[in-house]
Amino acid sequence: MGDAITTMLNVVLNVTDAFNTNKIAISTDTDVLKTSNVRRYDGPVIYPGAIVPDGWHRAASAPSAKACSAG
To answer: What digits encode the pLDDT tens for the residues 7-51?
Structure first.
């Protein structure tokens, strides 16, 4: 039963901003105003997940061929 589940399970890993480069830099340089501003957003975020196809619960709970043998 465990083999049926593991062969159908797919693991997914999404990573946002893996290299921490998500930022906005604003520079103003005039005779009256001189300013510089760098705004950084949250660093890397990791979202783990699993994907199972439709019907996985039927395959996992189905009896094996050895258990069904008649005789």
So the answer is: 677 888 999 888 888 889 999 999 999 999 999 888 888 999 988
Q: Residue 61 in contact with residue 8, Cβ under 8 Å?
A: no
Lookup: tokens for 30:
């005039």
Q: In Å, what is the CA distance from 27 to each residue of 30, 33, 35?
A: 10, 10, 6
Q: Model's pTM, two decimal places?
A: 0.44
Q: Count Cβ atoms below 10 Å from residue 9 Cβ, excluding itself.
A: 12
Under DSSP, the state recorded for 10 is E
**What is the token pair recorded at 45?**
């975020």
